[in-house]
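[Q] Does anyone have a clean structure-token version of this?
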Amino acid sequence: MRRVLAGLLTLLVAGCAAPIAPADGALSLGSTASAASAASGASGASAAATRSAKIASIRTTDATKGVITVVGTLTPAPAAGTRIPLHQWIPSLKRWQEVAHGYSSGTSVTITTVQPGSIRTYRIAVGAQAPYAAAVSPMISFKHYVWRGMFKKGLVAAGGAGQPQFTVVPPNEGPRRAEADLLANQGGYVWGEVDSTGCRYVRNWLGNLTDGLVRVSLHNGTTAITSIRMQQETETWLNHDISGVTRLRLQVTDIRSGYGPYVSIDSLLLCTN
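[A] Here you go.
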């Protein structure tokens, strides 16, 4: 009888224990699925909480005033009207400095700033907005060409033949440092040179006050680039690409006159300095 009871107890215990394995397996799979789901959710939240900033374009929009226009992209879009600063790297201070700012509209922002001719590095930034952390754009180096008076940095040298006179109008009369008078005796010529490093274009207005015919020319040092003949009491322009020219010479030469060449000029350079 005891053997029979022991056998029955063994069968009952075995019958109760048998379903435990699938249950453990189900629990284990369930835990794995939950962990994967949670990890996926955390990854999605992390990705969603990342904002990127980028300078989509940067260009000089007014070379006379020195206006730079920057268009930036912010993804995802921050709150409408978010203040977005434009930073410029200042090498002498070894730090970033805010030079302007704009306000976001959707995923875009437009920022304008007035700067002298320069080659500088720029970036835009957006502050933290929950759940997004602050973001800074990749840096962009930009050459900003601005018109300036040819004589802003003074003459490097001047000369000629026949009592040449290359007279730059003084700052109190010509603050743009662009005006000058060129004179010489009959049969003579006059020239002046400026350092044109960092410049890519020159624009010269010429007024011939000579009582005759003259030639006005541009030179890369002593090598002629281009020239024009001017009749008595006429006006004209002499413009040219000067990329790579570091020593620009402007020269007036008498061709046929009674008193010698006399030309007034108003000259501008397009430069990064």
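[Q] Thanks! Anything notable?
[A] The helical segments are 2-17, 20-48.
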